[in-house]
């Protein structure tokens, strides 16, 4: 089974699946804002409870979620480690010449790790519980007021939905290229830095060609079905705001109020 699930949709009938896509998008943005402005451990504990409740309601196992975010954990950890050395505030814990680790750096590193992890989790939940077509429709609904400013709302929503749709496809293609290169005797973790850069080029160039080929096939498929960008489209099943959305907003606003109160 492919471990990379970001951008994929897992069908289901849970309350999260049945929510309005525009509402889910706005709640995702609200959660990210709450994560970015959090500055206390109690805030991160509340946000962690909120994301756990969301996943439980979505009926997606945490084992699946872990396999999905596992490829990104190394990037998050690397970013957190960098933050470890750039905050000189607080008591010195360890030092070696110009390299120093302080209490402030340790705290900042932990905060950065939690922020990135929570943001990736809520974004993964959004894509797992929302089909790309409905996600594009949600983006279109949110951006609808900007039509008066001549903003190409339909094109923007289509671009975003296509980008999300092709993330897992390109990842699978990358894995295929890596396996093909390894079958030819390529060892990516050996050699000098320049050798490794050249080996990475042997992955990136075929991936770019594959991306262009996928884009060409998609454009031909859309043209063969008479797709035009200057026509406003309607939906067979228009999503509406339901009681589920009201409950979700009440829960998220409650946790947001708790975070504001903790700052006071």
Automatic annotation (TrEMBL):
The lineage of its organism: Bacteria, Bacillati, Bacillota, Bacilli, Lactobacillales. CDD domains: EcfT. It is a multi-pass membrane protein. It comes from the Bacteria. It holds the Pfam family CbiQ. Keywords: Membrane, Transmembrane, Transmembrane helix. InterPro entries: ABC/ECF_trnsptr_transmembrane. It is found in: Membrane. This is Energy-coupling factor transporter transmembrane protein EcfT. GO terms for cellular component: plasma membrane.
